[in-house]
Amino acid sequence: MKYAKIDLHLHLDGSLYLPWAWETAKKRGVVAPDYTFDEYYHFMHRTEFKSREERMTRFDFPIAVLQTKEDLAAGIYHLIETLAEKDMYYAEIRFAPQQHMLQGLTQTEVVEAVLEGRAQAKKDFPGVETGIINCMMHKGADAHTNWEANLETIRVTKEFLGKGVVALDLAGFENNGDFSLYGPLFEIAKEQGLPYTIHAGEMGDGSHIPLAISWGASRIGHGIDSVRNPEWLKEVVEKQIPLEVCVTGNTIAMYNRKYCDHPVRKLIEAGVKVTLNTDNMTFSETDLINEYSQMRALGVSMETLKRCAQNSIDAAFCDEETKDRLRKKMGFI
Ligand SMILES: [Zn+2]
Known about the structure:
This protein has 333 residues and is an alpha/beta fold. The protein has one domain: TIM Barrel.
C-alpha cells in the first residue's frame, strides 16, 4: 500500500515490539520467569473486556516494562526498527512521561531516555523520521489528581520542543470525570507556544470535540464521535481540524464491532480532514499498511487514500522542510 507511510497517532506503550517486551518483562520481574511467549502474546492481544475502563488497564503491562532509562531507550528503538521494516517514512510517537516514574526517574530523565533511543534508531534506520508527542494524562474523576504531573509534562515539553519533541497531548480515559477541568492546562500550553493535539470523542462523548477545539487543539485524537451531532461535525469540517482516525483501534473500542460500522466513510464524505493511523500496533495487531488496506476493503478509493496521506503530511507537527521532503518521497510534488 503505497500511501501507508505517515503515522501521526502511535502510542509507544501500546506498540512495543513483543519479543523484546516479553524478554524485558521476565528480566524485570513484571511476569514470572516461566511465563511463555504464547501466554504473553495472548495477553497483549486480547480484545475482550468487560468495560472500557478495564480496556484501559491493558496499558499497565507495557508501562511496567518501561521504567528504566535503558528500557525506555530500547523500547522506542525497537519500535522505530519495526517502522523501518515496514518502510514507513514518518511517525509521531506519543507516550506519557509521568507513567514511567515508578522507579524514581523524573519526567525530564524519562524524555531524555526516549530521545536517546530515538537518536540511536535515527542512525541505524535513517529512512524513517520521527517526532515525540508528550501526553498529559486524564486520570481519575478529578483533574487535580495529577495536576502537578501534567504541569510538569507541559514544562518538559517546552524544554525539549525542537529537540525531538514536537507536541503535547492529553490521553487517558476521556469519560472518567469532568473533561472540561483540563481546559486550563491548554491555556498554559498555549501561552508557552506549544503545539498540541487532544484525545477526544472516541469513547462515546463527542461533546469533548468542540471543547478540545475551543482549547485550541491543532488536531483531535480520534474525534470519530463528531458524527453523532451535526453541530460538532460542522465545526470539525468548517475549521478543518484534522482527525487522527485509528480504524482498527476505534473498532475494538466500540466493543469489537466490524470495520464497516466505523464512521470513517461518513467523516470523509462530510469533508473532514481525515488522517489514518495505528494507535496501538501491538494491542490491535495492526500496522499502517493494514489500516489503509482495510479502507480499500471498505470501498474507499485510492484517490481518497492519497488525500488522507496528504492530510497526514499537512497536519504533521514537523517543519515545512520536512513536509516537503515527505511530499517528494510520496510523489505528491
Ligand atoms: Zn491514542
